[in-house]
Amino acid sequence: MSYTVIARKWRPQTFEDVVGQDHVVRTLRNAIRQQRIAQAYLFVGPRGIGKTTLARIFAKALNCVEGPTENPCGVCDPCREIAAGNSFDVSEIDGASNNKVEDIHAIRDGIQYAPVNGKFRICYIDEVHMLSQSAFNALLKTLEEPPAHAKFLFATTEVEKIPATVISRCQRFDLKRISVALISERLRMIAADEKIEVSDDALLAIARGAEGGMRDAQSALDQLIAFTGAHIEEDDVLNVFGLVARKTLEALVLAILRGDVPNVLKLVDELDHAGKDLRRLTVELINHFRNLLVYLHLQGKTDSLDLTEAQEATLKVQAPEAQAPAVLQILEILIDLDGRLRLALSRRTLLETALIRAARAARVVSLEEILRRLNELQKQGGGAVAPAGTIAPPAAASAPPPAASAAASRSAAAPAPLASAPAGAATQAAATQVRESSPADSATTASSQPPPNHEIAARPAVQRVAEALGGKIVDIQ
Ligand SMILES: [Zn+2]
């Protein structure tokens, strides 16, 4: 028997088989059940997520001898012809290569004839956005007054290129990228049937690499079977597709969250030497921090996140180390990086500088956070800090115990190299304290630059400010 690629062999043949597009399937089934079938349908979405598959199933549902039915039999002549792509009543046209007005005229003429062995004449145009302006005009004419037996199905990856007049004559369905969890699950089923052993991390890596496209995932599986045989591990997937291992990605995220710049640079060096795709890495980091941000905001509820169990466990571990405002800032840095990497010659330099900024951002305490913590201290009966809401440094400096408030406001306002700034002893003492436990700086600051005034640094109010800031670098950008 001849070999059929996985994507074709496993193309869903019924509505039940369609993965990850429940909203579309439900509407189409309802339309058939209620016999409210529109003249034209438009399927919108990125490649490889099921547009053509849905169009074919819908065509079978309409033209099956049992039809219109939600459950096309799959064995009658119309069903088999449509599945094989050679039904006389269903024409599949590629909009990219049939984009001229004459092509649309041919379609218009063909669709006038009554169906031969189905109930409808169905015209499916893939990549319909590729039609020329005059072709669209001709199509619009046809859509305005089609014969009752004519149905149009369109698919596109770029809906913004389709005239509004055409869209408004269609029922539009926006197909979603398929979740990593659903793709992994489907691949696991296929692998079991094909008698291929694939580890969980390998499945996850394939699904990650496919970016929501089932066809890409299935083609990747095909390629990997050809590459490795009947046993696939994560490393095989990573090698073939230039992806980064889940564990390395997680280590990098953790290093950024902890402000551990040396480790960030070491990991980037390893990945670059291993020939990993640094742009791809950036996209994966964006996805990860985005998940982390949503996880933090939803307080651990993960229903709306597309996660496998392993990924969810990772977020649970990382969440206590992360502050939502810092993660948001890291995300902004990474998104900016992604935009600039497209044009960059030296991707590694850009990546390194951006990740250093991200690692710094992770350790920065926002001004709001400082004020919040100072207020908390005051409520606890500290009394030694500036009144709630007081931001202006000069006013605060004259408040009763000057050391604490001056230290707080100065350290908040001063730029990064706080300890060396020519400022009062109180500022220096507090600054040193505040900087102390930043991992990159702790050694040098603690040993070679002891607080110049131990007396002030030892004051309870100053100590409390330093403790309240959790030993983080205070840096207002
Ligand atoms: Zn049938």
Structure commentary:
- Helices cover 55% and strands 6% of the residues.
- The strands form 2 sheets. The protein has a 5-stranded parallel sheet, covered by helices on one side.
- About 15% of the residues have low confidence.
- It contains 24 helices and 7 strands.
- Helix 9 crosses helix 10 and helix 14 packs antiparallel against helix 16.
- The protein has 477 residues and is α/β, with parallel strands linked by helices.
- The chain is elongated and about 95 Å long.
- Helix 6 links the parallel strand 3 and strand 4.
- It folds into 4 domains: 169 residues, 3-Layer(aba) Sandwich (Rossmann fold); 62 residues, Helicase, Ruva Protein, domain 3; 118 residues, Zinc Finger, Delta Prime, domain 3 (Up-down Bundle); 102 residues, no CATH class.
- Bound molecules: zinc ion.
- The site of zinc ion has 9 residues, from helix 4.
- The site of zinc ion (ZN) has 9 residues, from helix 4.
